């Protein structure tokens, strides 16, 4: 079975065939940086990081473009409320997003363009649309004429033009030919940043930005465009309209991840129900939060609860426990070992990570049995399979990512302190002072540290 992905534009699971054999071009709608990220924002980054890792594992050369919307109405409003320039708000929150992506183990994008660095490309795209009769200038604004594209507008979101309401993206609807037309360019207003164009000073509309950046870095036709389901309409619908009306093929596959909700509601700053990344990392380790975010199918909605988060963390620790114990016995892991076919089939089936994790847990169960039996050959094979599968998901506890984060740094400190206690316990047992040895073990248990005596010596892990 080859890789198959659910394409929103056809509403079917399609075989993935890239434009160019051996190469994949992928664009992800990244952050609009008016506020720091919550886990709903970062879920998209983590989900598409898994897709990228799977494509890399399959031998593709992947160009991954994840944009930053560093100016829009919300950013301008926040800046005005704080009494600072718009770029202060953008830069502060952009750094918060970068930190969060790094903490959750997302590979850095090949390119991460900022919208306001690409105004010339946006002006050129507007010029092409006006020349083709799909856009018009009016009172300093520039609008896309949806009626001129009526035969195709609404296909992504499965809507008909006659049933659509006004775009509601400006307060200047009187300048539009049709209230459903959307703004490509917004004319200058007092206190707002502006750039010059042949149609007057102003700033870009949100939809225009992504079309200009995607085609600049990935070409007129590219493989995959991704984002959250909340972007299907109007954002992605409008991207398709303006790009294809200008003559570009644009994205061949459209992938959308489900929303992360809290109490059944979409997570958002406006509702006051955001779970910011620093707050989450006080509850669980970063690798455990990543496990939680990838465990559900990327297209499904997640209704967040602390209980579900802790269950996911415990599930990850069971995997980590086997890897840690097996690595004490097996020091050289075969990174080229083949993946279990059941894992490959799950990942090729529209990134069915939940099924892939079920395969990992089954291999871990087999590995624990092999450890108990002292079958080193079996342990070596199962450890290699486990680590290679975890690597695809960005979850290998022995990878450089998790060895070099604050998580593992804290683990190293705790490990050193526990090692001192275990040495004292061993010394007490050697002099047959079993009461003292038991007291040390009990004190560690009270601190949440479980000690296990093995043929290789005592080892510890956090209680689950």
TrEMBL record:
Q: How is the cofactor bound?
A: Binds 1 zinc ion per subunit.
* Binding, ATP: 269
Q: Identify which top EC class this enzyme belongs to.
A: ligase
Question: Where does this chain mainly localize?
Answer: cytoplasm
Q: Which HAMAP family match?
A: Cys_tRNA_synth
- Quaternary structure (record): Monomer.
Q: What is this protein called?
A: Cysteine--tRNA ligase
